[in-house]
Amino acid sequence: MTAPLTDALTGQLIVSCQAPDGDPMRHPDTLVRMTRAAQAGGAAAVRVNGPEVVAATVATIDLPVIALWKDGAESGVRITPTVRHALALVDAGAAVVAADATARPRPDGSTFAELVGAVHAAGALVMADVSNLVEGREAASAGADFVSTTLSGYVPGPPRAAGPDLDLVADLAAAIRTPVVAEGRIATPAQAAEALAAGALAVVVGTAITSPTALTRSFTEALGCP
């Protein structure tokens, strides 16, 4: 299953159709409509949050669904934190389960490798969300089907860069055979193209496409609006 999906995603755009807690866009029907708009715009896959939205998306569009389940404190493992969360996403129809693959302890005491084994046994693939090169190497060794730079700058460590971590994309692409996906702070088509040039298989874009609240705030802040 990995090879056909890898081929389908090569050089392509994945749109992250999510909204944070409390955002007016955080409604299953609205989020599914985002996925339909992404498909109409040419996205090769979508990344969505939570079993309910996964199931509704799978029933609505004909694109691979990369699923995660954000649960828990922002300061800890929050992206698909347990094996239970991962398997619920597979049951909802996810083709790929995205999960935190950082060195932080998981709340159920499982290892990332155990999560990978459980998801593979259930018939789906795993995307490892990492923050640095060491984590990417370890995730690849644990059997992840894709390694994504999602968490670069979002865990304790070096200060978060304003733009995408293209150095990490390039380092991962050179160090592992597992396909690398660029995600995180990709704000323009030019940056997306740069990520592919750096060695990414595909590019995930979220806020710059699907977050009117954040985009509006960027304009009001630039204008000094009260």
From TrEMBL:
Gene Ontology annotations for the cellular component aspect, listed alphabetically: cytosol
Its GO biological process annotations read:
N-acetylmannosamine catabolic process; N-acetylneuraminate catabolic process
Q: What class of enzyme is it?
A: isomerase
Q: Which InterPro entries match?
A: Aldolase_TIM (IPR013785), NanE (IPR007260), RibuloseP-bd_barrel (IPR011060)
What family classification does the UniProt entry report for this protein?
Belongs to the NanE family.
E.C. numbers: 5.1.3.9
Catalysed reaction equations from the record:
an N-acyl-D-glucosamine 6-phosphate = an N-acyl-D-mannosamine 6-phosphate
**What functional role does this protein have?**
Converts N-acetylmannosamine-6-phosphate (ManNAc-6-P) to N-acetylglucosamine-6-phosphate (GlcNAc-6-P).
**UniProt source species:** Streptomyces coryli
GO MF entry, a single one: N-acylglucosamine-6-phosphate 2-epimerase activity
Keywords (alphabetical) are: Carbohydrate metabolism, Isomerase
Q: Name one Pfam family in it.
A: NanE
Q: In which pathway does it act?
A: Amino-sugar metabolism; N-acetylneuraminate degradation; D-fructose 6-phosphate from N-acetylneuraminate: step 3/5
Tell me the domain of life.
Bacteria
Q: What is this protein called?
A: N-acylglucosamine-6-phosphate 2-epimerase
